[in-house]
Amino acid sequence: MPPFSFIFTPEMKLMSEENVCPACNSNRVQYALKVGDYDLFNCTSCGFQFLWPIPDDESLTKLYDDHQYHDEERYDSSTINPRVEVIWKKRLNVLHNDLGLKPGSLMDVGCATGIFLKNAREQSWNIVGLEASPQAAEQAQTLLGKDFVEIADFMQYSSEKPLDLVTMWALIEHVRDPKAYLKKAHSLLVTKGWIALATPNIRSFSAKWKAAKWRYYIPPFHITYGNPKSLTRLLESSGFEVMKIVTHFRPIAFFSKNSKSLKLYQKNKVFRIAMKVVLSPLKLFAEQFHWGETIEVYARKKD
Ligand SMILES: [Zn+2]
Fold first, then answer.
1. Across-strand partners of 200?
2. 174 CA distance to ligand 1 centroid (A)?
3. I need a labelling partner for 31 at 20 to 30 A (CA). Which of 188, 190, 254, 280 fits?
4. Under a CB-based contact definition with an 8 Å cutoff, are residues 38 and 220 in contact?
């Protein structure tokens, strides 16, 4: 027996009171699609897409302890991939040059192996990283120094001094209650402090085209999927004002997982460059209208 019954009205509104959007708590949700053994739903109030039932804390802890999510490259800070490092430099560029932030105190929540923090420290930020995975935190401590990285639960974290900036790169899609994370960040920031986050964009071309085969559908690791509108609503209802949204077009998202063409794209530089040239008009269009595969949102505390 399923944990609850699905009862649809002719308008396809799900009537179960248990199934509510984790971003806005609305129960105006519609069935979206099945990915593997998992069902995904769309919130018609705010636009979030989410896994339902949402795994409980115990099963999520077990999932990450089993270490299936962690691949070797992700947890090896000794070989920093220059193509990945470019992303961090671009994000710091947005903060400094587009939004005019001056370096201050920065917490990166879910800092993984600490490569973003390394780049931020090189640009004069006072850094601290939080990481739940001991394997990743150990790598970050080796890279940055033991005092700069804590193995800690963000929701339990307390800081003596308020922070100027909290970053959450590729984090909120992993958590059961994204709004609670944003409110927690709000409580740790100075007046007019900043938050910056990145997450897969459910409004992207590749999400529409690949459907259940979309690269970023990895349930149950990814629980929620936002778009520019839903993330703006989520941040505004958590006490922030959105100042800038950027999406990035990623040709890799158009290949199926484990496909021969994906392997060719990853390993063959000539093929990769050719694909980028062919897809460059689509990239221009996608990024202009926020249809890129990953979305970055930069927001400031309202008070
Ligand atoms: Zn919602």
1. 294
2. 16
3. 254
4. yes
Q: Please give the distance, rounded to the nearest whole angstrom, from the Cα atom of residue 151 to the centre of ligand 1.
A: 31
CA dist 106 and 88 (Å) reads: 14
Question: pTM of the prediction?
Answer: 0.88
CB contact at 8 A, 29 and 43: yes
Instruction: Report CA(173)–ligand 1 centroid distance (Å).
Output: 14
Helix, strand or coil, per DSSP, at residue 47: coil
State in Å: Cα 136 to ligand 1 middle. 32
Kindly give the distance from the C-alpha atom of residue 262 to the centroid of ligand 1, in angstroms, as a whole number: 33
* Tens-digit pLDDT profile for residues 165-217: 999 999 999 998 999 999 999 999 999 999 999 999 999 988 988 889 898 99
Q: Residue 66 and residue 87: Cα distance in Å, rounded?
A: 29
Both tokens of 11, joined, read 């308008």
Question: What's the rounded Cα separation, in Å, for the pair 133 and 131?
Answer: 6
